[in-house]
Amino acid sequence: MINAPTQTTNQAKTIRLRAMLDELLRQTLQRGFHGTAAIEIAVQDGTIQNIRRRVEQMER
């Protein structure tokens, strides 16, 4: 069972996560970008603790 504080925290971070993914896709899905992109979610006891965004771009 998910308690109210966990649910509220996860809802807020899920909204932030979706916005980060949209921005990450906007940055990387364009002509001329060569590299990797990743989003990592750390979860503890069912609660999202932090979100990491990583972009590595190769220079050609």
Please supply descriptive tags for the structure shown above.
1 helix; two-stranded antiparallel sheet; 2 strands; 60 residues; alpha+beta
Structural notes for this entry:
The protein has 60 residues and is α+β, with helices and mostly antiparallel strands. It has one helix spanning 4-28, and strands spanning 35-44, 47-57. The model has no long low-confidence stretch (mean pLDDT 92).
Number of helices: 1
**Strand tally:** 2
Largest sheet: 2 strands, antiparallel
- The average pLDDT value, as a whole number, equals 92
Helix percent reads 40-55%
Low-confidence stretches: none
Summarize the helix and strand pattern as letters: HEE
The N- and C-terminal alpha carbons lie at a distance of 50 Å
Strand content: 35-45%
- Name the strands of the widest sheet in spatial order: 1-2
Inertia-based shape: elongated
Cα gyration radius (Å): 15 Å
Structural class: alpha+beta
Summary?
This protein has one helix at 4-28, and strands at residues 35-44, 47-57. It is an alpha+beta fold and 60 residues long.
